[in-house]
Amino acid sequence: MNATGTSYPWLLLYEHSINRYPEGRSLAFVAIGTLLILIYLTRATSREGDKGVLRLSQIPILGAWNFYEKRIDYLTPALEIPGRSSSFNIRNSKVVVVTGEESRKKFFGHKNFDLNEGYARVYFGQTTPVKEMDPDTAAGQNLNRFSKLISPLIRNETLAKVSYEVFADLDRVMESWLVAGRLNPSEDIYDLVFQLTLRATTASEISNDPSLVSKISRLFWDIERGGCASAILLPWFLSPAGWRRRIALVRLYFLVKGVIDRRIKSGERKKDALQHLLDDGNSCGAIIEFTISALFAGIINTGLSSYWLLIYLDSNREWKKKLEEEVDAFIGRYGTGTGSISSRLAQIPITAWEDELPVMDACISETLRLTLHAVPLRRNMGADLVLGGANIKRGDFMAYPIDDVHLRESFYPDPHRFDPGRYTESQKAEDKAHWTFLGWGAGRHPCPGARFAKLEMKFIAALFMCRFEYRLVNGAGKIPNPSPTPDRNDSQRARPKGEAVYFEYKRTEIRALDTMI
Q1: I need a labelling partner for 304 at 20 to 30 A (CA). Which of 17, 52, 385, 478 fits?
Q2: Among 86, 64, 36, which residue's Cα sits nearest to residue 232?
Q3: DSSP SS3 for 506
């Protein structure tokens, strides 16, 4: 490629400067040389640190650039020896990567390890000074506050009411699709999760307005994409992604605030999440914080797992057939009446959805195991301690790659294979070690919204399989070979590696209707 083309505009600037200001050549060569050295250093191989702790490669002063760009690849060396710790820096903050059972137990179970402080530093560049930390009040208080706010929204009676609106949302979106055609699962199925999350955690003024849903979606993804290396490691650089993130956060804040203010001013009462939060006496600020937190907690993992569940099922027809039979029998037991499929599914008791779909449960667990590529983070709010051979001082940060357990051969033989049969009583990995499945959190940090997230995945899968026949194809309309696998470095959507895949579908409710006659 021509180096003076538009792909390398910085070279044009360099050439112009050198030709116009010859006296600046020496300085320019030093700058270019320094840049090349930094590039070399960030690509350098990992090396052993003090006392056997692996020091992962990084840029001096700035820290681990590739943690943000190719997170799973970057952390792969840390997983080679279970129980060994590794470390890297996010600017001046130390992050210790822990592995192995003992470290996992402490990571998820220690009372002084704070979740919010970990994420605030690593993904938003914010941190509480060590001298201001209070282990007695800080660790876990934000998670507890979130759990308290979401609790009334996931009670049986609340979920039973919202399920009718959820299925109406799903029905409306699916009706907007063509009778037959192609869907991009990483976009179209993901969008369903976004709609349902807004329905369950915000105001009807938002979830009933498609244009407002689209606007919030754009703001959400601007915030998500803004958590890149340049924005976190070079905050003074004011990168475009960093700017968009800041602007999106402000816009999202005032958008939600405007909805809340108008509801309060009007005195109107509605049967939605916002009304629950207002009736419980929460302040406007607390509701805004909860709403934004719910979006980030509820969209990424549930969204990508929902569409990968359908991909894995079509790539494993035996399990697809088992699940179809289970769903048909389920509808036959509960879906009485003459309404649409969605209205019949909405009538089914929440407890039945939770307790009477064992094949669906196993398929969801296996999908989460294979696609969940998060790296949970914590901050030590208490006294210094040693974990996995690493000294973790008060104020230090920790990371635990979930691949350490979810893709470990000793717990899950042939770990990259989709096999829901692993979750039978005789094969459960939980019998082999402590907390071997982390799909819904663990220890002191269970996922507060797990109940609704599971229902979302079940609702989407059941209705989609009832309404459509589908098969997985590539861009040429052929069955992908080999079967697609998630790009685990794609932190937002985990799209399939290599070529794009689609659902080639046609609408049919015959199979589900026959079971009800």
Answers
A1: 478
A2: 64
A3: strand
* Range list of β-strands (E), 344-396: 377-380, 385-387, 390-392
Helix (H, G, I), strand (E, B) or coil at 97: strand
430 in Cβ contact with 424 (< 8 Å): no
Distance of CA 152 to the CA centre of its chain: 23
Phi, psi of 450 (to 5 degrees): -60, -35
Find residue 48's DSSP bridge partners: 54
> Dihedrals φ, ψ of 81, to 5°?
-120, 105
Token pair for 366: 């296996």
What does the DSSP 8-state code read for residue 7? T
CB 441 within 8 A of CB 447: yes
Q: If phi over 0 gives left and psi between -120 and 50 gives alpha, with beta otherwise, what is residue 61?
A: left
CA distance 398 to 335: 48
Residue list, annotated binding site for heme: 447
Q: 401-424 in b/e burial notation, b at 16+ Cβ within 10 A? A: bbbbbbbbeebbeebeebbbebbe
The length of the chain is: 517
Query: What is the residue type of 272?
Result: D
Judged by DSSP in three states, 348 sits in: coil
Rounded to whole angstroms, how far apart are CA atoms 91 and 122? Answer: 10
Q: Summarize pLDDT for 434-493 with one digit per residue, the tens.
A: 899 999 999 999 999 999 999 999 999 999 999 999 999 999 999 999 999 999 999 889
Residue 56 token pair: 């992962």
Q: What's the CATH code, domain 144-516?
A: 1.10.630.10
486 - beta bridge partners? 496
- Coarse DSSP helix, strand, coil percentages of the chain, rounded to the nearest 5 percent: 60, 10, 30
Indicate the pTM of the whole model. Answer: 0.87
Binding residues: 447
What are the distances in angstroms from CA 431 to CA 400, 411, 449?
21, 9, 26
* CA distance linking residue 516 with residue 341, whole number of Å: 10
